[in-house]
Amino acid sequence: MTFNSAVFFAFLAAFLPPYYALASRSWRAAKLWLLAGGIVFYGWFNPAYLGLVFLSTTIDFVCVRVMSARDFELAGVTSARPRTTADDRARRVALVVSVLSNLTVLATFKYYNFFAGNVALALRALGADVSAPTLRLILPIGISFYSFEAISYAVDAYKKRTTVARSYLDLLLFITFFPHLVAGPIVRARDFLPQLETRRQVTAPRIVQGIQWIVVGYFFKIGVADNLSSSVEHVFSAPHLASTTEAWLATTYFSVQIFCDFAGYTLIARGLAELMGFALTPNFDYPYLARGFSDFWKRWHISLSSWLRDYVYIPLGGNRGGRLNTYRNLMITMLVGGLWHGAAWTFVVWGGLHGIYLIVEHAFRAWKQGQRTAITNAEDGPGSAQTGRLRELAHILFTVVLVAIAWVFFRAATVADASALLRAMFWPPSLRVTAPAKAMLKDGVWLLPIAAYYVTGYVRERHLNEGALRSMPPSWRTGVALGALAFVTLVCREVSDAFIYFQF
Known about the structure:
Blueprint: H1 6-23, H2 27-43, H3 50-76, H4 85-125, H5 143-158, H6 168-176, H7 178-181, H8 189-196, H9 204-236, H10 244-275, H11 293-297, H12 302-316, H13 323-341, H14 345-368, H15 372-379, H16 384-411, H17 415-426, H18 438-443, H19 447-462, H20 466-470, H21 475-491
Helix pairs in contact: 1-2, 2-6, 3-4, 3-5, 3-6, 4-5, 9-10, 9-21, 10-16, 10-17, 12-13, 13-14, 14-16, 16-17
């Protein structure tokens, strides 16, 4: 069941009225209905994999209870014994069991065949006659998302950085809350569990906000991403035949497609949560306005980048221990981020490229540090503001182009396919500037609304033309604009594909 399917709309129509009725009478009954909704939603893909969700949640619930047992005792006993070495050892064992169980399930279903196959290939290259057994397993949808949520819950509980679930029901709801269950955002327990403790208030402003996000999200997905997908597929399915023009157009289209596909999903998820009185964290903040690659990862897939920062980069040492250690930690973190997306060398290269981008950026900043005062003084005087803005726009364009180059590996089926497309884009003997197919040119019209979206974002961020922003249309005009977006989405829709991030 996907957000862009008729089955989902029928499910939502059947789910919401009873939820509102139950929430007004009994919050526990409403939570049970939420749980039932999550089970039906996820079970629609493959009921067998519900067992993995329940297994993971049960292990995490027991382990976190072990970690927090002493805290519960202190809360209920006026004169309690001090914490002992045995208590600390039990907490550490519980943490290891929780984290390893989640990583084991994730590794078995998502990475076993990739690593086993590559190890066997390496051994054969060394002369050993070995073959790796393969597991014929279907990758459970959303496993990367809910596994990372479970790991962050266990680690935060161990470090006392989160509210501990009051009941098994609450923890199961945290994992199975269907708006974020299969494609994020990666929700932290400390943000979500407190919302389960009290009855959610579904107010008119929340409903209006939710509907706005949902309409824009569907426009991003069905109106833009799906209409660009055919041109992207046309080029990436046969990269050796692509001309230079087609290669650049397809790369640009995919850069927009993946943003609209994933940001669209996130907006729909946040909108659905608002309709039920919950708040999910934002996952995108105009990523193609990033001034550099550190800035890009503060704007793109924010829930993943912050997760990698908190549970990989900082535990590795972060920026402590000198530049070389910082560069090593950046590269490891981005390689983990690449592998999180999929068990393929294309994702490893994609993550490695972003690691290189970040390392070069950090090194350049360190080199530039001593010249900053001179540059600042040189920019003082007439025209400096305009020069600074042009430099900023150039910085944004530079970042977007290099991010787009990395997207080639993300989208390509193999590293060889990605290399063929990059040769068509950059390698002089392969350059062929020809007119692309008319259908591919027509698809370019879908870049216009996204360009307008980013221009508006740039104006807001730089506080340009603030008077125009203050005179934005009143609510009835906003309603008309949303209605127009919904109309365009329905009229111009192609065959709607599954969301790209469902495969992760």
